[in-house]
């Protein structure tokens, strides 16, 4: 049972990892995107449509996954572009814009689920491309089951997070992006195209988050549609960004802990349904504790980007 | 040769002309000082060179070529680098990271490289010795071509490699930066995070950054404002070294002695307009001051002689720390009399803000006293300032008395009886006589019944709430008086309507958010509210900043009205003409110290201009004649202001008796 728990935890952690990596990239540019839950819902819609299309066209597993990812990224990225246009060009309030996108995305997702249910569309078949283990049939020992038996997108999530961590920490692109989020005026004076960086990070981050939604529907639930869950997981992804101290590398481990806490109640015997639901708040509680701890230490490196939530306009006086 | 030439540059922000038709040029290898009072548009002008602002009109020439500078990237392209007054550094990064931030990769074009290989190969072929026979020749050409093709094929990989290598933040990059630092003799630990650096080290990082990016034309915006004298000398040494290396430097500064010391030429701006440029060796500080402040303009502001000036606010040895923990106000003493306007002059940032906020209890006061003095007076108790409970409590403390002098005892009296007594003005009280305001919060000051009004510099952030209506803004000062849990807007609304009518505030209604009003009307609302409580002391910081002429005169009249009401008015201004025409006495601040307190009716604009830039003992060192004159006017003033202080002590004795 322990092996099954860890296996499931790793699987679910990928959802959080996609969401938090995307959100970290956005927040590094100084934009607090609370629309991640909505964007993940959009990504889920796009991913399912793409996967279904590719499956119906009789494409291979690899192509199905690729097309699903592209669709999820397009749908998520489109919402990211909308968010960017509102907050970067029009300089709207970021929190309001983000929450609007969340409400909008969740609503559209609920509508779409109902529509699909009425039409009797199922994604179970298409989802087999996703649940198929990436490394083929592996042994049934604990190591292989825990780490090697997952679908492709679990590993893709980790690869994306690692790349994001390296880019942010080790390259000039990451340095410039961090500068934009810390002090846009300084970045601008240093010749960095602030608006471009903000747009790219908003769209790219949203696109990566979008994959998370698609992954949840097509892998975790094997194509069965349930409204409401993705939104909740999206909020956890936003919390995970804080938990991981804006570092995708830590996010990999953080997402595992969140996945474990999220899935563990289902594996505890002898407690009723209500208690299990209460146990699911643990990730949020942990995030609050982390926030308190980083405030106590008050180290500059663990603080959120300094210009988070602030609009930038060069000729401001 | 002209390095940079600005022709007819104009920039407006809304209705304010920051720069108007400015012409300026810098030669190669010279240091040009840009001199001007605050708000004369120096920084705006330089920001247009650095690509932060875009000019509304005018032309910029670099090396004789007309250029368009739309962004800081363009400025770097034309080798212009600016060290901003408020450093543009990312605190979280190391010094080295800040320096390389935004650096562009050296250009590497596959197309050009291919072309180059082609030419190279053709040269090699033509260089083949003619002695070779056909077969050998073909073989050799094939060899050369093969080599060329192979090299061309490798180009994308080389480019990719270069991009990766450039983008990778390796530790070796510090070497190039260190070389620049060594060349100019900067001492800096590049691995330190910026938030760990001192102010002068931060400035060093900014300068190295500009040099690293290959700037030949440097703009330094008030670089000496934050430095100690030793650090200033170090900076000047570096600047001289840069000049030797053929770089052109524009330095923005207020300090005349530095201008004389470092620059080759001086350009003067006044109120956004270009006044002129002079060679430093042909000019004197006096001439520069005259150029900076301009000829005296007669403003025709009405000014009465103070009637019966009595000390109202006595400030002794006040020391206030600013946010960074430096002394913003250092050992300042002065007296404000009732019925006079005390003008405060000084280049902005020399402690005006901290002085007023220190008195109002908003800043961290570390030493000295602020004593509020009020003439003894019997006044009837009203329900305006006290509710029933407070009246009972104060009566029990023996604070009230009847008109015949016997103490008031309200024990056992019903609310109705007390109300009647109050309404008939039968209960009187002595106003507080001498109160030390030091280390009291604004609320405590208010609760003590001291009518201290403060019109802060930042109207919409400190004075009013932009999103609230005029009526609600009136309530900001009185909301604690209410007893009900619901808000009663009756009295604030009456007050708001009165202010709108009396001061001619142009507004759609009294429920319009203040934010939507124009600057002048916002100021009228704020000043109107502050004087509505009939203050004993009215402090106003830059009350006419950004206002048109009519609104300004209305504010001057309001201040004069308060003066006639025997209020002590403190007026911090930036326009010397206004200060000279409106104030009775002028206190000149320089570097947080009192440079002098002078009689506004006698002093000249140049004397004030000089006092603003230097403390009197420094002036003496420069042996400047007119400065001595102003010192002479200063001394009798000081004794004059001490007299009332003695007077005050006497009165204190009397009350003790």
> Measured on Cα atoms, how large is the radius of gyration of chain A?
19 Å
Q: How many domain modules of chain B?
A: 4
Poorly predicted residue ranges of chain A: none
What is the H/E string of chain A? HHHHHHHHHHHHHH
CATH-derived architecture of the largest domain in chain B: 3-Layer(aba) Sandwich
- Helix fraction of chain B? 40-55%
Determine the oligomeric state from the structure. Answer: heterodimer
Structural class of chain A: mainly alpha
Overall structural class of chain B, as computed from helix and strand content, comes to alpha/beta
Percent of residues in beta strands of chain A: under 5%
Total of helices of chain B: 23
3D structure, described in words:
The complex is a heterodimer of chains A (317) and B (657). Chain A has 317 residues and is mainly alpha-helical. Chain A has a single domain (2-302), classed as ABC transporter involved in vitamin B12 uptake, BtuC, CATH 1.10.3470. Helices cover 74% and strands 0% of the residues of chain A. Chain A starts with a helix and ends in a 20-residue tail after the last helix. By secondary structure, chain B is an alpha/beta fold. Chain B folds into four domains: 2-92 and 193-293, Rossmann fold, CATH 3.40.50; 305-377 and 437-451 and 536-657, P-loop containing nucleotide triphosphate hydrolases (Rossmann fold), CATH 3.40.50; 378-430, no CATH class; 464-533, no CATH class. Chain B contains 23 helices and 23 strands. Chain B is elongated and about 135 Å long. Residues 620-657 of chain B have low confidence and may be disordered. Classes of the chains: A mainly alpha (317), B alpha/beta (657). The A-B interface holds A 170-173, 175-176, 178-179, 182-183, 185-193, 300-301, 306, 314-315, 317 and B 13, 50, 52-54, 71-73, 76, 82, 84, 87-93, 97-98, 100-104, 166-169, 193, 195, 209, 213.
How would you concisely characterize the structure shown here?
By secondary structure, chain A is mainly alpha-helical. Helices cover 74% and strands 0% of the residues of chain A. Chain A has helices spanning 2-28, 36-56, 61-89, 94-119, 124-131, 142-148, 152-170, 172-182, 184-189, 194-220, 229-243, 248-263, 273-279, 282-297.
